[in-house]
Design brief:
The chain is mainly alpha-helical. It has two helices and no strands.
Length: about 80
Amino acid sequence: MFEFVRKLTEWILQKEEEAAKNCRIPIEEIDKQIEIVKAKRAKLEEECRKNLSELDRILGRLESIKNIEIIKCSKE
């Protein structure tokens, strides 16, 4: 499905590029699309930062648990 959406997006961008070469697309429309993509990118970056932060927290806890187990088991 992702590949289909990627190909469809590429096709649309090619058509818009052709329209721009023939002065058939208003600059305002392109600016609007750029702003939409920038907003989506910023939202995705924030979500990724949050997810990475949570994964780092989980990894830290797991490393701590592992260290406790190593210390406890090496004494026994």
